[in-house]
């Protein structure tokens, strides 16, 4: 869970909500839910300890969660339709 949470944070920072959504859609739904809960718990802990930099990372994931989830759903639907997401169809 720890690893999944931190990979989601890294993807959010490096590739935005779409990058995090690409990873989220590969996770089992219960793991994604637990990753969000862990991020919130770690955010709360960091806030109490005064670790603002770390708290900011966890908070960014929690605050972006709905957008990431919506984008992950869109990506799943596109994959089910067989849409190409990275490259447009040429023919």
Protein described:
The protein has one domain (2-78). Mean pLDDT is 90; it is low at 87-91. Helix content is 81%, strand content 0%. The protein is elongated. The longest helix has 30 residues, at 52-81. It has helices at residues 2-24, 29-49, 52-81.
Can you lay out the helices and strands and say which pair or pack?
Blueprint: H1 2-24, H2 29-49, H3 52-81
Short structural description:
With 91 residues, the protein is mostly helical.
Strand content: under 5%
Total domain units: 1
SS content category: mainly alpha
Distance separating the two termini = 42 Å
> How many H/I helical runs?
3
Sum up the overall morphology in one term: elongated
Instruction: Specify the helix fraction band.
Output: over 70%
Radius of gyration: 15 Å
Oligomer: single chain
Order of helices and strands: HHH
- Largest sheet report: none
- Runs in which pLDDT lies below 50 for 5 or more consecutive residues are 87-91
Overall pLDDT metric = 90
Secondary structure: number of strands: 0
Overview features:
91 residues, mainly alpha, 3 helices, 0% strand, elongated, disordered C terminus
């Amino acid at each position: 869970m720890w690893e999944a949470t931190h990979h989601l944070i890294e993807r959010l920072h490096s590739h935005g909500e779409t990058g995090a959504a690409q990873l989220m859609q590969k996770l089992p739904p219960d793991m994604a839910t637990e990753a969000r809960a862990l991020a919130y718990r770690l955010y709360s802990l960091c806030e109490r300890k005064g670790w603002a930099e770390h708290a900011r990372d966890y908070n960014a994931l929690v605050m972006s969660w709905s957008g990431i989830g919506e984008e992950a759903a869109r990506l799943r639907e596109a994959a089910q339709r067989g849409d190409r997401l990275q490259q447009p169809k040429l023919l």
